[in-house]
Amino acid sequence: MAKLISATYHPNIEVAEFICEDGRHLLRHGGTLPWRINNPGDLTARMVDGMPSPKKAKGYVGFATTRSGRTFLIFPDEEAGRMELKANLKRMHGDRTISEAIPAYAPKKENNTQKYIDDLLKISGVPGDKKIRDCSDAELIKIMNGIAEIEGYHAKPETRKETWVEVSRINATNGIQPLPDTEIIIEMGGKEERIKSDVTGRFPPVIHPADKSAVHVKVVNPKTNEVVKIGEIQGETGRDFNLLSRSRKWKGVAGSEKINNSKTEIKRPTRYVVQLGDNLGKISKLYRTTIAEIKAENNRLGDKIFPGEVLLIHGGGEERSTGVRPSRSSLTGATEAPRPAPPLVPPIPSSTEPSDSVRSKEGAGKVLALINPMLGRAPWMPIAIAEAKLRRGKVEQLIEKEINYHTEIKDGSISMSDRAWCAAFVNWCLSKANYPIENAGYADRKATMGRAHGFYEMNERLKIRNPLFVELEGPIYGAIAMVKNSKTGHGSHVGFVYAKSGSRNLILLGGNQGDQINFSPFRIDPVEPHEEKRNNGKIVKIRGRPNRLNFFVPVAYYEQAKKDLSSPGIEQADAAEINKEMGIEGVEIDKNNSPRTT
Fold first, then answer.
1. Which of 216, 323, 573, 587 could form an SS bridge with 499, CB 3.0 to 4.6 Å?
2. How, if at all, do strands 539-542 and 547-554 pair?
3. CA 553, CA 561: separation in Å to the nearest integer?
């Protein structure tokens, strides 16, 4: 059976829509909600700031928010739903009996809890005084079967329907790499709709009409401004199509065909910035390569990639990093662990054309001097990520031997060891993305670039608002986050917003975080002094923390930032896992879930 890789839910028509890896869509309607979303335990999603953010749940492929406002997990099949139900029972209720677990599992405000307990004890046959962790696998299966029955998973079987819908996908490409913001016209049923490709060259999927009629794909001829038909989508099988641009001429090309049959053309190296929701499979299809080739070209063993990373595509004979490849010992046959490879250089000078010069003369992955803004969100983030991977957890004394962010941006300081360099690092990344960082004509303008508080105010005496940056009402991916003391109003640290860490922390990518460049969690809001009761009954006094986060972006990015606020692009993540995956070593996180900063 084809694999279902993502899903969404349409509450108004009560339909669960799954997307298959082969491009088809599966619609499940009728039955009950648990059946439609393959969730026999009716498990809900953990919510953080109004967004579904499951922390430990596994196997789900989407979320279903119902008309009542509750959000449930969607699983690709019943087995995946049962596996997470079993894990949930053990993880959340292992120390409880059925009678103790159900009030938390099915609270009174939404269920007849006592009836639920009585029915589950009767259906499962599990003794009422037996803890769930002590149940055998056979008993756990009976409990799970009972929950599925009570939640209505098997109800209304006569109304269940599954409908497969064929979907074709269209990508805009110049034959070597995707083209963003390209407009095409889709004509379906006599109606036309104009759509644009996203930053990775992808258009929204085109669903084949149920009446088998053709969907016409058109473009506007740039010379005559006439609408020209370039192809059509029809039939019972979904396909991938590339819209190939050659000398301003468009041509529809089936995705399974070669983009160019010319033997003289060589695919030149390209830098690709990983976008939210990307995976290696999607990227390999866009560039007509394979997952294995991408992993080999980037010295990767695993399939995990992170938003903002820069990947080398079609590297061919380009000089690789000196990271150690896995090898077999001639004596023991053991596999040596690979060393993390130095990062790739961000794209230059444009992300819509390949470049012959993709490394510095040293071949060490050092960021070149001139880098134009890259497509997608927060174009400075790939630069910051590449720099973090390049330094790989080195402390400031070692970093300073290779680069000094103070002297790079000319903020007047000469030593990273003597003066905090978090602001210098942020400004250096912004400058490499061609954003202005110095306010010409203002007194104290150079020193401002080296101060965390400088993103808010210039000149500590006159307190002039920095005109280069705009403050946001909340965080977005790539925003400049300033750690501000809520009592004094002074900014003490700064970094880039990368991800969430639970409901109270954001993971910042920054310099001078424990004397390193790394990913570390920071508290969003202040913590007032208070007392907490531990599980052992002991009362502990919490000192509290006065710091909060304020968020800024360059003025030139403000229009995009306003759009980003409606969809911040901030995912849940674990700082330690990110640092490990990116080869950043020696990160120290204190007991309060914050990095040691200076």
1. 573
2. unpaired
3. 7
Rounded to the nearest 10°, the torsion over CA 426, 431, 435, 439 is 90
Q: How confident is the model at residue 355 (pLDDT cuts 50, 70, 90)?
A: very low
How many Å apart are CA 35 and CA 17, to the nearest integer?
13
**Backbone torsion region of residue 426, taken as left when φ is above 0, otherwise alpha when ψ lies between -120 and 50, otherwise beta:** alpha
Residue 283 DSSP class: H
Answer whether 314's CB lies under 8 Å from 228's CB.
no
The answer, yes or no, to whether residue 246 has pLDDT greater than 70, is no
**pTM for this entry:** 0.51
Nearest to 460 by CA among 470, 450, 473: 450
Nearest to 558 by CA among 438, 478, 445, 485: 478
Other C-beta atoms closer than 10 Å to the C-beta of 65 total: 14
Relative orientation angle of helices 381-391 and 422-432, to the nearest 10 degrees: 120
| Rg of the chain taking only CA atoms, in angstroms | 27
Region 535-558: what's the mean pLDDT? 84
pLDDT at 545: 76
339-364 CB burial, b ≥16 within 10 A, e <16: ebbbbbbbbbeebbebbeebbeeeee
The mean pLDDT value for 120-129 works out to: 94
Q: How far apart are CA 505 and CA 568, in angstroms?
A: 15
**75, 3, 312, 497 alpha-carbon torsion, rounded to 10°:** -10
With H, G, I as helix, E, B as strand and everything else as coil, classify residue 400.
helix
Lowest mean pLDDT segment, chosen from 2-6, 316-320, 387-391, 580-584: 316-320
- Tens of pLDDT, residues 262-287: 333 445 566 777 876 678 877 887 77
